[in-house]
Amino acid sequence: MTKPLVAIRSVSKAFGEFQALKGVSLDVWAGEVMCLIGASGSGKTTLLRCINQLTAIDSGGIWLDGELLGVREEGGRLHRLTERQLAQQRLKTGMVFQRFNLFPHKTAIENITEGPVQVQGRKPDEVRAEAIELLRRVGLSAKAESYPAQLSGGQQQRVAIARALAMKPMLMLFDEPTSALDPELVGEVLAVMKELARSGMTMMVVTHELGFAREVADRVVYMDHGAIVEQGRASEVLGAPREARTKAFLSAVI
Amino acid sequence: MKAAPALAEGFPDLSGMHVAREPHWFRWFSAALIVLVLAAVARAFANGQIEWSYVSRFLTAKVILEGIVNTMVMAVLAMALGIFLGVVVAIMRLSPNPVLKSVATGYTWLFRGTPLILQLLLWFNLALVFPTIGIPGLWSARAVDVMTPFLSALLGLGINQGAYTSEVMRAGMLSVDIGQYEAAQAIGMGRLRALRRIILPQAMRVVIPPIGNEFIGLVKATSLASVIQYPEVLHNAENIYYANSRVIELLIVAGIWYLLVVSILTPLQMLLERRFARGTLQFAR
Ligand SMILES: Nc1ncnc2c1ncn2[C@@H]1O[C@H](COP(=O)(O)OP(=O)(O)O)[C@@H](O)[C@H]1O
Ligand SMILES: [Mg+2]
Questions:
Q1: C or N: which end of chain A has fewer Cβ atoms within 10 Å?
Q2: Where does the ABC transmembrane type-1 domain lie (chain B) (predicted)?
Q3: Domain containing residue B122
């Protein structure tokens, strides 16, 4: 029997008194495109950040490619991994942020080559050639030597996607990648993501772009108050939701 | 389709008229007043008990030139030590490790909290506390031989400077968006690599103006090292006027040199600022 690429089991996370995730369990299969939807504050960002370990979970477990993330089990106890081990585990996931977070003091191509050269210790020439290919793939061949401040929001986000892909991750996490963009720039970023989905990349996408979810997602997950309320094929969850809360959310956003 | 409504009457056509230049009487008056005051001061000094020939003679005297070189050497080395300590201490201060954090806080507290001249005297007189210093079994020496005026001044000025610089560096690092740190982590960087490759280069842009300030302050603070016999420019000027009693003349000589050095530093700082402004809109392209 095959195993899911990501297995999330009873994950909880609190910020002080506030319970941001309440026992979330979920499987993500290799090659799957999953869209996470839900009202602001429902815990979507927190879930992605837990998978990438930018946030440490309080209880439960997350396995990526069969490997337990963030902690090590020994003698019936869990021990936190070291900073170095966490960094090693993060190499398997790529993250795209709502606010791009490109490195402003580096050009587009330097942003892309930074990780493979500095972290993975690969040869600069070889990485550069790959970066040029990635820039072509996101439609920015002409902008290799531009600094982020010289790029539009849509272009910056496409460079950010290329930067994440350069690490050759098994899983790509997108946290509202088009929410900070002017409406006319959303399409170019979604087009890059669609191409990525067709290429077989496993993707978890937090988004409010229901059109994108309908067209690209294999599965849509609706979250509310730190829990998964409903999940299923895009046509089912978006077209014929079963839960009252899902219906209320969808009628509010459309 | 309706025609555009006719414009209302009563508003004359101003196009083609220029804005007149105002005479600015007060500016002329105040400028004249300042020139007068300056002239009076210059006259007072010219006719005062100052032998200007001494000033021009000693301005390039060998001892004075050696003094200003020593001043610069000490300022540059102490600043280098200060920046090194400042970066290390700022990183410790922002670390999640409580031990490193309190060591860093304690260092800043101690060296910012006591007068610089007191610290210089303590370093210089270390031999009174520890007659011999060294690493047990490996190396040892008499403290009086080790704690020369040069080394005492370097340690005193550099370690004191580090306490101030660490706060400037910390401010610079805090000014970098947290998203930059997360993006660095997301591509697999550890804390130190993210600091070195991503956070510090961006912090530099913010810290250069205050570090420039600190350096100018340090150039002048080297004069305090005259109390521990370090032969910087003021110390040498004093030695000359002890012999020839031309106190004011030699103080003016030293003053001219300090002004000269500080004037050269400002354009150097501009160059550095440009270097670290890479990627920001104003200098891009
Ligand atoms: N670092 C944090 N400290 C305190 N509260 C947080 C933090 N991060 C998220 N939260 C809270 O957790 C809840 C879920 O946040 P988030 O996962 O960002 O929701 P979503 O992405 O679905 O809008 C929100 O109420 C938010 O205020
Ligand atoms: Mg969010």
A1: N
A2: 68-269
A3: 54-274
Residue A33 has pLDDT above 50, yes or no: yes
Domain count, chain B: 1
Q: In 3D, which of A108, A150, A99 has the Cα closest to residue B182?
A: A99
The total domain count for chain A is 1
Are B248 and B240 a contacting pair, CB within 8 Å?
no
Strands A171-175 and A93-96: parallel
Interface of A with B in 202-231 (CB under 8 A): none
In sequence order, the β-bridge partners of residue B71 are none
Q: For residues B190 and B204, give the distance between their C-alpha atoms in angstroms, rounded to a whole number.
A: 20
Asked if A178 and A140 count as a contact pair (C-beta separation under 8 A), the reply is: no
Distance CA B123, CA B155 (A): 7
Taking chain A, what is the end-to-end CA distance rounded to the nearest angstrom?
A: 40
Token pair, residue A206, equals 């937090």
How far, in Å, CA of B122 to CA of B133, rounded?
A: 15
State pTM to two decimals: 0.86
Written as one string, the DSSP assignment of B167-229 is: HHHHHHHHTS-HHHHHHHHHTT--HHHHIIIIIHHHHHHHHHHHHHHHHHHHHHHGGGGGGGT
Residue with tokens 């600190």: B214
Domain membership flag for residue A73: no
State the DSSP H helix or E strand holding residue A163, giving kind and residue range, or none if neither.
helix A153-165
3-state helix, strand, coil in chain B (%, to 5): 75, 5, 25
- Alpha-carbon distance of A112 to A126, in angstroms, equals 12
Calculate how close chain A gets to B172, using CA atoms only, in Å: 15
pLDDT tens-digit map of A85-132: 999 999 999 999 999 999 999 999 999 999 999 999 999 999 999 999
Is the pLDDT reported for residue A196 higher than 80?
yes
Spatial separation of the C-alpha atoms in residues A223 and B143, rounded to whole Å: 70
Q: Give a yes or no: residue B73 inside a domain.
A: yes
Indicate whether B242 belongs to any domain: yes
Residue A128 lies in a domain: yes
Residue A222 lies in a domain: no
A154 is a domain residue? yes
For position B227, which CATH number holds?
1.10.3720.10
H/E segment holding residue A15: strand A6-15
Among A54, A83, A167, whose Cβ lies nearest the Cβ of B187? A167
Ligand 1 pocket check for A49: Cβ under 6 Å = no
User: Going residue by residue through chain B (285 aa), what tens digit of pLDDT does each one get?
Assistant: 567 778 888 888 888 888 888 888 999 999 999 999 999 999 988 888 888 888 899 999 999 999 999 999 999 999 999 999 999 999 999 999 999 999 999 999 999 999 999 999 999 998 888 888 888 877 888 888 888 999 999 999 999 999 999 999 999 999 999 999 999 999 999 999 999 999 999 999 899 999 999 999 999 999 999 999 999 999 999 999 999 988 999 999 999 999 999 999 989 988 888 888 877 765 444
**pLDDT recorded at residue B1:** 56
Domain with A139, as residue range(s), is 100-168
> Could you tell me which residues are beta bridge partners of residue A37?
A222
